[in-house]
Automatic annotation (TrEMBL):
GO terms for molecular function: ATP binding; diphosphomevalonate decarboxylase activity. Residues 11-183 form the Diphosphomevalonate decarboxylase-like N-terminal domain. Its EC number is 4.1.1.33. Belongs to the diphosphomevalonate decarboxylase family. GO terms for biological process: isopentenyl diphosphate biosynthetic process, mevalonate pathway; sterol biosynthetic process. This is Diphosphomevalonate decarboxylase.
């Protein structure tokens, strides 16, 4: 019997606290600024991907949630698969392995998301991270997560950060070929295990403007983006990394909320403008602002930090001791009505990716 070449890997979503928005190279997916995120570690928001290579497969094929998704030549999916095959060839040549053929076989890939796809819940991040990780297992590649992040990045920029657990930076790099635009871990989850995330699903509809076309429009038209890239993000990256290393929630929270606000301001500064948040999103912001104001007025510090990606759903970062109170507050102010506030999905520790 011939051997079976098959591997499965799973990766969680990550939610940025310093947002990536803008590409300086659209083919290689090189960003206009560095970004930083927290990888969520629970079973609810994950992609799980199985890859199989076999001499009998006539072409590469992919199924997403059970439905075949065409792998178009030159697409990001095709790029990730061919880059992984190239890595396998390199390793085989380097190590003089006896069994070089597997990189010549076509692959069949099946991927499942256990949450709504393309609803502003970072499904492309976990999806491409799991894809690259499963091919790395299939090809037994002895490479670091940072090396894999170079390839996941070419699937979806934010995917490069899901190759690590904990607190992760995507360094924008300066090389035109993209060899230094990769993810690094700022701190593992165990460094600050009290950090939790509450996901409030305001809507699980597909988003209106995709991140790809939104970013392109912003890069072409927003003067505010140029200011953000040059004067705001580099300093925020440094300060929030330090805040994470020092477990300083006040600084972490102020920077996280300011950066979410600026990302949505940049979207509004785009021509024509892009609106990702809705009235419920804005009402959640008002609630968190008031909640923090009361805590500070009573001599405490910040207790919660909201952030929004390219969609209306809120992610609230808070320390474990405050999460229950915040969840109760959200549910009492936003009883679920059809078409409005859908669900508080649950509590998510910031955790290690299982890749
Ligand atoms: O990787 P993409 O193309 O899905 O873009 C993600 C953009 C944001 O989620 C809005 C920000 C980020 O850094 O994740």
């Amino acid at each position: 019997m011939s051997p079976v070449y098959q591997a499965t890997a799973s990766a969680p979503v990550n939610i940025a606290v310093i947002k990536y928005w803008g590409k300086r190279d659209t083919k290689l997916i090189l960003p206009t600024n560095s970004s930083l995120s927290v990888t969520l570690d629970q079973d609810h928001l994950r992609s799980t991907t199985t890859s199989r290579a076999d001499a009998s497969f006539e072409r590469d094929q992919l199924w997403l949630n059970g439905k075949e998704d065409e792998i178009k030549p030159g697409s990001r999916l095709a790029t990730c698969i061919s880059e992984m095959k190239r890595l396998r060839k390199e390793v085989v040549e380097d190590k003089n392995l006896a069994e070089p053929k597997i990189s010549q076989y076509n692959v069949h890939i099946a991927s499942y998301n256990n949450f709504p796809t393309a609803a502003g819940l970072a499904s492309s991040a976990s999806g491409f991270a799991a894809l690259v990780a499963s091919l790395a297992h299939l090809y037994a590649l002895p490479v670091s997560p940072s090396t894999l992040s170079l390839i996941a990045r070419q699937g979806s920029g934010s995917a490069c950060r899901s190759l690590f657990g904990g607190f992760v930076a995507w360094q924008m790099g300066s090389d035109a070929a993209g060899t230094d635009s990769l993810a690094v871990q700022v701190a593992p989850q165990e460094h600050w295990p009290q950090m939790q995330a509450l996901i409030c699903v305001v809507s699980d509809d597909k988003k209106g403007t995709s991140s790809t076309s939104g970013m392109q429009r912003t890069v072409e038209t927003s003067p505010l983006l140029q200011h953000r890239i040059k004067y705001v993000v580099p300093e925020r990256m440094e300060r929030i990394s330090k805040a994470i290393l020092e477990r300083d929630f006040d600084t972490f929270a102020t920077i996280t909320m300011a950066d979410s606000n600026q990302f949505h301001a940049v979207a509004l500064d785009t021509e024509p403008p892009i609106f990702y948040m809705n009235d419920v999103s804005r009402a959640i912001i008002a609630l968190i602002v008031e909640y923090n104001r009361l805590s500070i007025a009573n001599g405490g510090g910040y207790k919660a930090a909201y952030t929004y990606d390219a969609g209306p759903n809120a992610v609230i970062y808070a320390l474990e001791e405050n999460i229950k109170e915040i969840a109760q507050l959200i549910v009492s102010y936003f009883p679920q009505k059809p078409g409005e506030f859908k669900d508080v999905l649950g509590l998510f520790g910031a955790g290690a990716a299982d890749v």
